[in-house]
Specification:
CATH architecture: 3-Layer(aba) Sandwich
GO molecular function: oxidoreductase activity, acting on the CH-OH group of donors, NAD or NADP as acceptor
Structural class: alpha/beta
Oligomer: single chain
Protein name: 3-oxoacyl-ACP reductase
Shape: globular
Strand order of the largest sheet: 3-2-1-4-5-6-7
Distance between the termini: 42 Å
Largest sheet: 7 strands, parallel
Radius of gyration: 18 Å
Number of strands: 7
Strand content: 5-15%
Family: Belongs to the short-chain dehydrogenases/reductases (SDR) family.
Pfam families: adh_short_C2
GO biological process, one term: fatty acid elongation
């Protein structure tokens, strides 16, 4: 962009953003914000009906791709199809994930492996699939959606913590390797966000909800759009000199007492 100025500096016009887990929750909010900023968004996930409903709500410049991130060998074909049908992927958002609440000593090796396959290996497979094209074009952005579990200990989520902590290391390594080629790699670490999943987790446990609010300096849950607009910033020309960063969007939870 020549002589960028506000608001164009935050525009994603001309970009093709592939967002895993894009049909619901935080992924849907990221898709909505990127779409509003001008990108064509490709919502990827396992449940076609949810993806189709989200894309229909967004309208033009929104399409879907039924894809299971744990099918690692399918990543290159997915990226090739999107490139053929929509255009080269200029922004990848590794958002798809699963969670499991269980004491560490009760977490089995298969459960741990499933968590790592979904988050770590799944995101690596897709990043590896989009990176060559980005390197060739000397431009691109990859975002990982990390977690508060990447930053401090949370009981009962050992496998999830390991997977989300791996994202922080992956961002550092990927950014070191790819940034010299014009490809930026960053992460967002959401705090406690008001989603259907979080509401379900809090059902019947008002003490847990109050504990979260009590340790968050802004004394509230965030909105999914808070993560969406942070993703727009990191993918936009406004962040052209930002790489290797894990950005907490958490109402101060990671630094408050």
């Amino acid at each position: 962009m020549n002589n960028p100025s506000f608001p164009g500096i935050f525009s994603l016009r001309g970009q093709v953003a592939l967002i895993t887990g894009g049909g619901t929750g935080i992924g849907r909010a990221i898709a909505g914000a990127m779409h509003a900023a001008g990108a064509h968004v490709v919502l990827a996930g396992r449940r076609e009906a949810e993806l189709a409903a989200a894309a229909a709500e967004l309208g033009e410049r929104a399409s879907i791709a039924v894809h299971d991130v744990t099918e690692l060998d399918a990543a290159p074909a997915l990226v090739a199809r999107i490139t053929r049908e929509t255009g080269p992927v200029t922004c990848l958002v590794n958002n798809a994930g699963i969670n499991m609440k269980k004491p560490a000593v009760e977490t089995t090796s298969p459960e741990f492996e499933a968590m790592l396959r979904t988050h770590v290996l799944g995101s690596h497979a897709l990043t590896r699939a989009v990176a060559p094209g980005m390197i060739e074009r000397k431009s691109g952005s990859v975002l990982f959606i990390a977690s508060m579990a990447s930053l401090f200990g949370i009981p009962g989520v050992i496998a999830y913590t390991a997977a989300k902590s791996a994202y922080v290391g992956m961002v550092k390594c990927y950014s070191t390797e790819l940034s010299p080629h014009g490809v930026r790699v960053n992460a967002i670490a959401p705090g406690w966000i008001e989603t259907a999943m979080s509401r379900k987790a809090m059902e019947g446990d008002p003490a847990r909800r109050q504990k979260i609010i009590g340790r968050t300096p802004m004394a509230k849950f965030g909105a999914p759009a808070d993560i969406g607009w942070a993703a727009v910033y990191l993918a936009s020309p406004a962040a052209s000199f930002v790489t290797g960063v894990t950005l907490p969007v958490d109402g101060g939870a990671s630094i408050g007492f």
